[in-house]
Amino acid sequence: MKKAVVLLSGGLDSTTTLACAINDGYEVIALSMLYGQRHSKEIESAKKVAEHYHAKHIIVEMDMSFLHSSALTSQDLKVPSHNSASEVKADIPVTYVPARNISMLSLAAGLCESEGGDAIYIGANSVDYSGYPDCRPEFFEAFQKVLNVGTKCGVQGSPVKIITPILSMSKAEIVKLATKLGAPLQYTWSCYNGGEKACGHCDSCLLRLKGFAEAGIKDPVEYEGSI
Amino acid sequence: MKKAVVLLSGGLDSTTTLACAINDGYEVIALSMLYGQRHSKEIESAKKVAEHYHAKHIIVEMDMSFLHSSALTSQDLKVPSHNSASEVKADIPVTYVPARNISMLSLAAGLCESEGGDAIYIGANSVDYSGYPDCRPEFFEAFQKVLNVGTKCGVQGSPVKIITPILSMSKAEIVKLATKLGAPLQYTWSCYNGGEKACGHCDSCLLRLKGFAEAGIKDPVEYEGSI
Description:
The structure is a homodimer. By secondary structure, chain A is of the alpha/beta class. Chain A has a single domain (3-170), classed as HUPs (Rossmann fold, 3-Layer(aba) Sandwich). The first copy, chain A, is built from eight helices and five strands, in the order E-H-E-H-E-H-H-E-H-H-E-H-H. Chain A has helices spanning 12-23, 41-52, 82-89, 100-114, 137-150, 152-155, 171-181, 203-215; strands spanning 3-7, 27-34, 56-61, 119-121, 161-163. In chain A, helix 1 (12-23) links the parallel strand 1 (3-7) and strand 2. The A-B interface holds A 58, 60-64, 66-70, 92, 96-103, 105-107, 109-111, 113-115, 133-134, 136, 138-139, 142-143, 145-146, 148-152, 154-155 and B 58, 60-64, 66-70, 92, 96-103, 105-107, 109-111, 113-115, 133-134, 136, 138-139, 142-143, 145-146, 148-152, 154-155.
């Protein structure tokens, strides 16, 4: 059976991506990174999703708090709410974590090679996250080249393949695909904040809510207040 | 002042590389990774080297024990001594850590970008470690492309530059360069094993000893027994 490492954050996109890997016939190893996130909600979601699929789940802790310049790794920077996000959107968002996808793909590549796997699935999206340089097709093409020339299996002619099934999809398309594949969206967590329920106000919640609305599907997760 | 992140393992090569960065006029941030090494000797060496240069030193812990296929991260695989190494040398060595340099460069890239740095120095060597795919020039060229297209500073026109000062040098040339630059070689640790003194028998010790011998310079570190 073909084997794939799936980067699983516990959000909508990575969960849909895991469902794609299963649907493509892969035995899945889920890989989650604890990189000094501001809350552990995502990891709990990732665990539930991996359990749902009876997938082996590896959680790697890596303290990335030395990356001071991102709101997702630093306590000093505030995750922007929708009201303050407009000025940020014109540039690269403050939630951009320097070299995050590069680091996660690197670990996934090591694991995949170690396990004799064939592919890495990553739920990057260049539509909604157009401000992130490491979510663009040219980044993944460049990284594929690194795996071709810089890993043992690459040099030996069978490089690990990076697969980005939702790279060019809108959020509504992702929601529809996830629903079609029966992905357990009730377990997913997309909110940038770590409350009991999703905040409904951060960029990530707004994107998600818009996606469900456009898809005409009810979001199974709960939101704070009147959202 | 220009700023560089230097990957510092505490060995001869990375210490020489740090000395090169200082000599090139950079303010240096040393970055060491604890990746489930079998001993902590290297990290102690790295600390002493960084202190010697009064460099900021960041140590990142990352449990890479989930990479079962390398002798440097797994307790189950034996680091080859010289006697058993010949069969391994024809292929990629068992001490190859899947995607290690990729992972270390990724973290260095994140740190460098976060700190507003200009360059990453890495003491990779394609002469003595010709069996490692991630020590070859084509790997570093491919990774540079990743930084150009996949990071914020790259997209904005000022990518972090990967500098590999000793990539094509023999071990003897490295020893001579280190000595010329006044690098504190007495603090360095190259041995794959974690004894009180260097073993003098592992591939890494043998390479180092050969380098010093060919350079006509006395190795300041102590070795076990009669070596």
